[in-house]
Write a structure and sequence with these properties.
2 domains, 50% helix, alpha/beta, Rossmann fold, 6-stranded parallel β-sheet, 7-stranded parallel β-sheet, single chain, 381 residues
Length: 381
């Protein structure tokens, strides 16, 4: 019996799990007898990936937040190294989570294992010198956006822009009516989605502010309804606790939803954390307010290193500010309620960006998972 082709693969959060699952499916179509081992979430595990640890253990962000988890992260890194060095997979594929995956890849590369990193770290925004280490330890960089690939090519790093799988999965039809029916929301309702992110730290920092914004906005616009998507049991419990603290737990104007795609599609406006979900909102052509808040010292360090004028993907992809961004001290209840008031009274001003959203969508629709699998196949040939 032919020995299966084995891949090491590590994803650190929900968005990486989705990318990883799509890539696993594409690789399986090319290599009928292949196996995957590393760290993944429910989507990757459903396709047969052997996960050596809970993906949630890698879900940290910022400069300071990971320090409290450092011993655990180092222990997991060592465990993965020992397993993968022993088994010598055809390639190691790190999906996002660059601070963890690039270090792991560097050690595996020293042992002759081919290394792939899927989703470029934000070298164009800060810590640009990382590209020198990437050149030494990564055999193939798979980028989501064209402007990233050009940077790697300038530094002689093998890179392929594959586009974003979400742009392939999400079509140009609007399913708002259908998704509202599925959620039991009236077709004519004014719906705002509150999306503080999937990490516990993000929810802790942003959800109280989002809820206060909702309460203040309802005083002026009592017809508003808020949907709050969550990812996982722990996130739901955390959000439930914060809602109960605000004494709005029984209000039918707040609805928790276990599907972010459906929540975004059903909404008229999204108040959301910066991150991958902003791209999904763009692809679904929903106006949004992008919010960013981290530990003060993390922001102090990050703002000094930041080399780009925006944090939101829609603005970065457009090359200009097309979506409002509220960062750190500027992120206030007053600022958000004013934006919601503008949306309720002057909706046309938010609708102007929708054609730009569609243009960006078409540019990213390139068959990402198949392109990524093809690039990996060429690396191994």
């Amino acid at each position: 019996m032919t020995k299966p082709l084995r891949f090491g693969i590590v994803a650190g959060e929900k968005s990486g799990d989705i990318l990883g699952a799509s890539l696993i499916a594409a690789l399986r179509s090319r290599y009928l007898n292949c196996e995957f081992v590393g760290v993944g979430g429910p989507a990757m595990e459903a396709l047969g990936c052997e996960s050596l640890a809970s993906m949630d253990r890698l879900s940290v962000m910022g400069f300071v937040e990971p320090l409290g988890r450092l011993p655990e992260l180092l222990k997991l890194k060592k465990r993965l190294e020992q397993r993968l060095i022993k088994e010598k997979p055809a390639a190691f594929i790190g999906i996002d989570s660059p601070d963890f995956n690039l270090r792991l890849a560097a050690n595996l590369h020293k042992h002759g294992i081919k290394t792939v990193h899927y989703v470029s770290p934000s070298i164009w925004a800060y810590r640009q010198k990382r590209i020198l280490k990437i050149r030494q330890s990564i055999d193939l960089m798979l980028t989501l956006f064209p402007f990233e690939t050009a940077i790697y090519e300038e530094h002689s790093v093998r890179a392929v822009c594959v586009g974003h799988p979400l742009a392939d999965e999400i079509g140009f039809e609007d399913h708002k009516v259908t998704h509202r029916q599925e959620l039991g929301i009236k077709s004519g309702a004014h719906v705002i989605a509150l999306m503080p992110g999937s990490r516990a730290g993000e929810i802790k920092r942003l959800m109280p502010l989002f809820l206060e914004t909702a309460i203040v906005s309802m005083q002026k616009f009592p017809q508003l309804k808020f949907v709050i998507p969550y990812s996982g049991v722990e996130a739901k419990a955390q959000i439930d606790f914060l809602i109960a603290k605000e004494k709005i737990f029984k209000s039918d104007q707040f609805q928790l939803v276990d599907n972010s795609h459906r929540a975004i599609s059903a909404a008229d406006l999204i108040v959301m954390a910066s991150g991958t979900a902003t791209l999904e909102a763009l692809l679904l052509r929903r106006p949004m307010l992008i919010c960013y808040k981290v530990a003060p010292i993390t922001y102090e360090i990050g703002s000094r290193l930041l080399k780009v004028p925006y944090v939101g993907l829609p603005n970065l992809l457009a090359g200009k500010k097309i979506v409002p961004e509220y960062l750190q001290a500027d992120l206030t209840v007053s600022a958000l309620t004013k934006e919601i008031e503008n949306f309720m009274t002057k909706p046309a001003t938010f609708a102007d960006v929708l054609s730009e959203f569609e243009q960006i969508h078409r540019g990213l629709r390139t068959g990402a998972s198949e392109k990524a699998a093809e690039a990996i196949t060429q690396l191994l040939s």
